[in-house]
Amino acid sequence: MSLTHPSSPSFPSPASSHLFFISSKLWSFILQRLSRSWIHPVTGPPGTS
User: Fold this and answer.
1) Is the pTM of this model over 0.90?
2) Up-side HSE of residue 47: CA atoms within 13 Å toward CB?
3) Least crowded by CB within 10 Å, which of 3, 30, 37, 45?
4) What is the Cα–Cα distance from 18 to 21, expressed in whole angstroms?
């Protein structure tokens, strides 16, 4: 695995790829919480639907 495309906007450096990994995990966690509150409105505050 060698970065042969430094001009690629996807993963220019290992640091940015690590940041992308963290942000994707954070987004998946947020979306999971949102979908869980939407599917089960009982667990959330009343009147959210």
Assistant:
1) no
2) 0
3) 45
4) 5
